[in-house]
Design goal:
alpha/beta; Rossmann fold; Ribosomal Protein S5, domain 2; 2 domains; 9-stranded mixed β-sheet; 4-stranded mixed β-sheet; 12 helices; binds thymidine-5'-diphosphate; binds magnesium ion
């Protein structure tokens, strides 16, 4: 690995030389005349907060409308969920405008290249690894030694760098194994010092691990500026990128992607993905509008309540929180007389999307009641409300936003909590105060299925 910059005639090294010179100026500009002197807010320049786009609007949204230069972003997720794919695609988009470095500590350069070819990342589809470096500003570094990585960052001075993954790199001065808590912490701290000093935006990949021997992203959350988790069912194609910490924007925003054989595609209209097949409405189906951060997503819930052949009836949930489901079943039994203690009960959300929020309660209750009575809920009605233990319907956050999304998708009616004042939403509203009223409204007698 190069330690010093030697001026030569090749274009690659020329870039490096310029980069190193730029870095020196950047560093000297960044120095305050009086080190450690306190400043007023007004004295601190805000020019560094000029965000830039990652090339993917779903990713920008989660980051808080774009990448903040010099920020440190942790991207966590289960192994195999698509972190490397996402970041390689992002780097490819960024390489059109910025110098970017992808440190592939887990894969060889050729492996990354194979993946890139599969993704049809055009710059990387060149015939040899060298020509990639010649043709574009996307640099690959298959390296696990942190000192070598820091040296390369120092020389190349990329605007954006990805470390994939933090568990695969190590600091040679520490005796513990790569992936241990001390290695992961020290490596991140060293990278952070480097990134803040030279204004490099760093994306660090961290695998979520069940095994305590390897430190997961949790260990690092307090160190970094932004924490994103990439999640999804490995057997379903959709992936959610969720921000759980963000020093530069709102948390709990989500970006939605779909994994295909050509990599990750953005899903700009997630409701369409989770709505299920509207033509085949069946008894026991109810539609709700979940909210992920500030983003409404229309989701179909399906319930099945059938006589049990077990001493204690079965309950199972997919996408709905188990204890919340038990609570709703108890309310239905006690307040509406549905004999659920003699019925198995199942509920699932379309695509397995996690809708563990109180606003989904009433939809769950109605889906169960509809399945029990073998009736159909009008497919153009959405249902929103939290269910209290007394059988009352409580108000829901961001109701207007949710209803507007439903109206946009062609829904006509909404069953909503009584007393929530709303502006015009374009839907016929049916306010209800109790679960029993909601069930009467949702399941009129004539909709009995054949
Ligand atoms: P990867 O990005 O390697 O996951 P991570 O870095 O989080 O461990 O993605 C792994 C999975 O994604 C892999 O099992 C195959 C799948 N995949 C696709 O379905 N299509 C694609 O185009 C690519 C590149 C991967
Ligand atoms: Mg990976």
């Amino acid at each position: 690995m190069e330690q010093t910059v030697t001026p030569t005639t090749t274009p690659t090294d020329g870039t490096r030389l310029v980069a190193a010179q730029q870095s020196k100026t950047r560093r000297s500009q960044g120095q305050d005349p009086v080190p450690n002197a306190a400043l007023t807010l007004a004295q601190i320049s805000d020019t560094n907060l000029q965000r830039f786009s990652s090339g993917y609007s779903e990713l920008d949204r989660v980051l808080g409308s774009g990448i903040v230069p010099g920020s440190l972003v942790l991207v966590g997720g289960d192994p195999g969920i698509g972190k490397s794919t996402l970041l390689l695609q992002m780097m490819n988009a960024l390489a059109h405008r910025y110098r970017v470095l992808y440190v592939c500590a887990e894969e060889s350069g050729h492996q990354v290249k194979l993946r890139a070819q599969r993704l049809e990342v055009e710059q990387l589809a060149a015939s040899s690894l060298e020509s990639i470096v010649d043709r574009a500003d996307l640099y690959l570094l298959p390296e696990t030694d942190l000192e070598a990585i820091v040296r390369e960052l120092d020389t190349l001075q990329p605007q954006v760098a990805v470390i994939d993954s933090i568990q695969a790199i190590y600091l040679p001065t520490l005796t513990s194994a790569p992936g241990s808590v001390s290695q992961v912490r020290e490596c991140t701290a060293a990278l952070m010092r480097m990134a803040k000093r030279d204004h490099i935006t760093l994306f660090i990949v961290g695998h979520v691990t069940k095994d305590g021997a390897i430190a997961g992203p949790k260990v690092l959350e307090h160190l970094v500026d932004t924490v994103l988790y990439f999640e999804g069912d490995r057997f379903a194609s959709h992936r959610l990128l969720r921000s759980v910490k963000n020093r530069f924007g709102a948390t709990h925003e989500v970006g939605v992607f779909e994994m295909s054989d050509r990599g990750l595609a953005e899903v700009l209209n997630p409701s369409a993905l989770f709505l299920g097949d509207r033509e085949e409405a069946t008894p026991g189906t109810a539609t709700i509008v979940a909210c992920e951060g500030t983003r409404p997503i229309v989701v179909e819930l399906q319930a099945l309540a059938a006589p049990t052949s077990y001493a204690s009836p079965r309950r199972s949930t997919t996408g709905v929180e188990y204890n919340r489901f038990l609570q709703i079943l108890a309310v239905l039994e006690k307040r509406l007389g549905i004999p659920l203690s003699k019925l198995d009960a199942y509920v699932s959300s379309s695509g397995g999307l996690n809708v563990s929020e109180p606003a989904a309660d009433l939809g769950v209750a109605i889906a169960v009641a509809a399945s029990f009575r073998d009736r159909m809920v009008d497919p153009l009605t959405v249902i929103l409300g939290e269910v209290g233990l007394g059988g009352q319907v409580r108000s829901v956050s961001q109701l207007e936003l949710r209803l507007k999304e439903a109206a946009k998708l062609g829904f006509k009616r909404a069953i909503i909590p009584k007393g929530q004042v709303l502006a015009e939403t374009g839907l016929e509203l049916i306010p209800v105060g109790r679960v029993a009223d909601a069930i009467v409204a949702a399941l009129p007698a004539q909709t009995r299925s054949s």
